[in-house]
């Protein structure tokens, strides 16, 4: 295993021991480490001898991001979840590989720096740098068409995916145009700490991981003063014109971000209606999964109704395929 991979897997412990953090973060990071290691192992070990992907090192401002490569087109960027606290590029391999198989897409899966050692805007900057690299190198290095660019993200990765179209301009002053996005249980309003957000019906009364909630707020909540106006961190504040042209939201009901996602979707639909924008120009869709919970698409098959994962992924594949057809 590459040294960089080992450091990524044990980044909670490394940050707890060597980063200048508050004690309230340090002990929670140490408690979070076994969970992070378990998740990373479940995602990575089955791929240890897989020929399906190649690791690239893309230069970013402070660290490096891993990407998965196949020499196909169009181009898609997937961003893993993990509460901004952890995760590896291989997290979403089942989704990425299936998307590539069905749509003939070059799928890039990136890593980024983790909180609390690296609060906002570190992860956003890392993704910006990956997109900048893709803007200038997708054709020559990956055989992919940057003009047919879509994004996806799970949980925190969904937040980052919705920031891509709002990102800094590339070196020539241009910006990568995002034809479409698919987000899975994406937090879109981080102005409010998770423990103060409305609890949806059916949510467990006792959450055994509640003690980790301050960690989940460490990416957005360490600003002084707190960042409350940045639409990249809080996509719910973004003008619909600055977001991907076509957006699909996969929304489970047993999830704390339920209310903010539904509010966001309805507001964008209303804004498009007021602007007189036709569905052929911009589209906002959502699919609600009544028994879904946060992260349910990433757990082993024995723990969920596998049919719901199939339905969610197939909806995403169809949505992205339709985008390819529309803009080809």
From TrEMBL:
<dbReference type="InterPro" id="IPR013094">
    <property type="entry name" value="AB_hydrolase_3"/>
</dbReference>
<keyword id="KW-0378">Hydrolase</keyword>
<dbReference type="GO" id="GO:0016787">
    <property type="term" value="F:hydrolase activity"/>
</dbReference>
<dbReference type="Pfam" id="PF07859">
    <property type="entry name" value="Abhydrolase_3"/>
</dbReference>
<dbReference type="InterPro" id="IPR050300">
    <property type="entry name" value="GDXG_lipolytic_enzyme"/>
</dbReference>
<feature type="domain" description="Alpha/beta hydrolase fold-3">
    <location>
        <begin position="78"/>
        <end position="296"/>
    </location>
</feature>
<dbReference type="InterPro" id="IPR029058">
    <property type="entry name" value="AB_hydrolase_fold"/>
</dbReference>
<protein>
    <submittedName>
        <fullName>Alpha/beta-hydrolase</fullName>
    </submittedName>
</protein>
């Amino acid at each position: 295993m590459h040294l960089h991979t080992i450091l990524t897997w044990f980044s909670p412990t490394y940050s707890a021991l060597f980063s200048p953090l508050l004690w309230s973060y340090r002990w929670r990071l140490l408690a979070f480490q076994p969970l992070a290691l378990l998740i990373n192992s479940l995602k990575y070990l089955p791929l240890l001898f897989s020929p399906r992907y190649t690791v690239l090192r893309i230069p970013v401002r402070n660290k490096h991001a891993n990407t998965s490569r196949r020499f196909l087109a169009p181009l898609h960027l997937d961003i893993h979840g993990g509460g901004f606290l952890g995760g590896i590029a291989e997290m979403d391999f089942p989704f990425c590989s299936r998307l590539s198989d069905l749509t003939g897409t070059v799928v890039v899966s990136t890593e980024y720096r983790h909180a609390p050692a690296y609060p906002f805007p570190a992860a956003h900057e890392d993704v910006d740098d990956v997109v900048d690299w893709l803007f200038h190198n997708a054709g020559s290095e990956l055989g992919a068409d940057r003009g047919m660019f879509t994004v996806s993200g799970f949980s925190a990765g969904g937040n980052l995916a919705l920031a891509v179209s709002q990102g800094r301009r590339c070196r020539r002053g241009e910006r990568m145009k995002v034809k479409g996005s698919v987000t899975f249980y994406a937090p879109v309003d981080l102005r409010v700490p998770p423990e103060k957000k409305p609890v949806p019906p059916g949510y467990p009364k006792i959450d055994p991981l509640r003690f980790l909630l301050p960690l989940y707020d460490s990416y957005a909540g360490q600003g002084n003063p707190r960042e409350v106006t940045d639409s990249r961190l809080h996509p719910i504040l973004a003008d619909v014109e600055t977001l991907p042209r076509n957006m699909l939201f996969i929304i489970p009901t047993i999830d704390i971000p339920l209310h903010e996602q539904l509010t966001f979707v309805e507001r964008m639909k209303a804004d498009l209606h007021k602007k007189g924008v036709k569905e052929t120009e911009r589209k906002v869709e959502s699919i609600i999964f009544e028994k879904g919970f946060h992260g349910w698409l990433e757990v082993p098959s024995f723990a969920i109704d596998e049919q719901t994962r199939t339905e969610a992924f197939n909806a995403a594949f169809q949505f992205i395929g339709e985008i390819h057809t529309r803009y080809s």
